[in-house]
Hints:
Blueprint: E1 2-11, E2 27-36, E3 59-63, H1 74-80, H2 84-87, H3 93-104, E4 109-113, H4 118-128, E5 139-143, H5 144-152, H6 161-167, H7 179-196, E6 205-207, E7 219-222, E8 227-230, H8 237-242, H9 244-247, E9 260-265, E10 272-278, E11 282-292, E12 298-306, H10 309-339
Parallel strand pairs: 1-4, 4-5
Antiparallel strand pairs: 1-2, 2-3, 5-6, 7-8, 8-12, 9-10, 10-11, 11-12
Amino acid sequence: MNYVVLDLEWNQANGITEHEVPAIPFEIIEIGAVKLGADGSRCPAGDGGSAQGRDPAGGFNRLIRPSVYHEMNQATGRLIHLRMKELKKGQPFPQAAEAFFAWCGEEEYRFCSWGSADLTELQRNMEYYHMKPLADGPLAYLDVQKLFSIAYEDGKSRKSLEYAVDFLELEKDIPFHRAFADAHYTAKILARILAEKPAALRNLSYDVFHPPKDRKSELKVQFDNYAKYISREFDTKEEALADREVASSKCYLCRRNLRKKIRWFSPGGKHYVCLAYCEKHGYLKGKIRIRKSPAGKVYVVKTTKLISDEDAEALKARREHASDVHRKRVQRKSRGTKERP
């Protein structure tokens, strides 16, 4: 399998003078990519275009002519040092995207990116131009930013691209903050991970711009130390949380249905957690995040992870605290109602 390391630059509405188009809040203005073989070596360049006069060895680089936002957002312009007059020499997005997919080739490949945003915005731009979707459900890819953390740090932190380049003492041979350059450095980091920590690549990520269409296509994946479930779409959050599969707790090691020690609750309003116990493997923490789909519906991303007895006790304390906060809030509202004339 090859690895297509992708980076995008995009523009957005320029405040007062332009209004955001909800269907495409971020318009892609540059595509940069590098292709690696299964061993981490760079594949031949092919017809990848040029990056400001350079022939990107093993790479693809195209500027895209804007059709939605015709002024450069000030913050974007300062960061990537691109001017609108340069972009007017670029290709229309559909033409550039088709050239990119042709460059990706017929051999099996997996997309890779630094962070989780690029594939979402690529698919959003493709949908805006009525192009054939990359997938009819969640799209597996490698988040190299996450893999760097898993391979070399705590697995939770998310550091900048330049930080990772410095950490691994990689050569800085071109400036950062352009699509091809950032793909170039991301590819260098991925090649190092392939050489030194290949087991980290088991930790796939999933872009859910297109959620599962039905119950049969819902995603259930087991990793080394946790399991992930991505649901189909629901009309409302309440409908999603009432679904049996969403609300269930299962041990991902022995597949047993578990009775909850703590039912689902929201400690801070952003997600829901629960605590279950497996007689064979111990405590498991469940976490539910409610996500909005482009269609205006919701879907669920649920993770289940084994935790220590100490972490289980800490979760119980969080539940008690959340209950106290809720109880006091209800009491304040009740007193306020009684005091009204």
